[in-house]
């Protein structure tokens, strides 16, 4: 079935490109049964585990090679991500280094947080929530996410052009029992182990999302909110890793990606150099009277770390 659909669509795409030489793609209704399923609600229109239970023949991951071989006039095959684990879908649809575009996905907070994973970890060229026009801009969760992404778009594009220069992530709401469904993200960059985790608060921790870009050496750009970053030197002779600078940045020129320093953060904002906090815009102080976990402002900051090396015995 996949061969015949792909073969037919190749004729359509090839003929179309003769008239309009523009990028072409087809989207995919994914099957949701399996280890990467992400759904806990009744399925009204979506997915399935067997041919006939969903529109079989499309470019699902098990026949993606067939589509790429027999519909080569398509520039990429794009997944609809509703009921499948987000990062897994992104990873699978970068198959053979094809561009990642998500033409349909959830339009709620849960979906909005995940677009940072697409852009930061899988170099997505676009993410489009289905039915975004059914929400008012003032209450639409994508307004905040897209607004921040738009302001740093040139910076993100530059990072996407460099291998392994960025990572995107999200931290979901805590479970009803207080457990954390989101795990920390760990990267090795510039001789340091960088750990990204949910931001500390005195009260109840909230959700978060964003990306970290390795600027080279010991410098990192933090974008987003609701997370914090720790660093540890990977040098076997290092005795201490600390923060040299932690500066809140503001976009000075969107076209060039130029940033300017707005505030110098230290002390309480880093728990005396333990971690660099990128707080939520309304952190829960849990009744604590001192506002040490300052709320987010620009949601952009530059971190520079350093390591102290021990002396060899003589």
Describe the structure.
By secondary structure, the protein is an alpha+beta fold. It has 2 domains: 2-153, Glycosidases (TIM Barrel), CATH 3.20.20.80; 166-309, Chondroitinase Ac, Chain A, domain 3, CATH 2.60.220.20. The protein has 6 helices and 15 strands. The protein has helices spanning 2-19, 64-70, 86-92, 109-122, 141-151, 153-160, and strands spanning 25-29, 76-81, 101-102, 104-105, 126-127, 166-171, 185-189, 192-198, 208-216, 219-225, 227-233, 238-253, 258-264, 276-278, 300-309. Helix 1 (2-19) runs parallel beside helix 2 and helix 3 (86-92) runs parallel beside helix 4 (109-122). The radius of gyration is 22 Å and the shape is globular. The chain starts with a helix and ends in a 5-residue tail after the last strand. The mean pLDDT is 91.
List SSEs in N-to-C order.
HEHEHEEHEHHEEEEEEEEEE
Average pLDDT figure: 91
Structural class: alpha+beta
The unreliable regions are none
Q: Outline, from the CA principal axes?
A: globular
- The number of helical runs is 6
Radius of gyration: 22 Å
Known CATH architecture of the largest domain: Alpha-Beta Barrel
Structurally, the number of domains stands at 2
Query: Could you estimate the helical fraction of the residues in percent?
Result: 10-25%
Provide the β-strand percentage band.
Answer: 25-35%
Task: Enter the CATH topology name of the largest domain.
Answer: TIM Barrel
Q: CATH top level of the largest domain?
A: Alpha Beta
Major sheet size, sense and barrel closure = 6 strands, antiparallel
Domain DUF5597: 142-276
Organism: Penicillium cosmopolitanum
InterPro entries: DUF5597, GH
Protein name: DUF5597 domain-containing protein
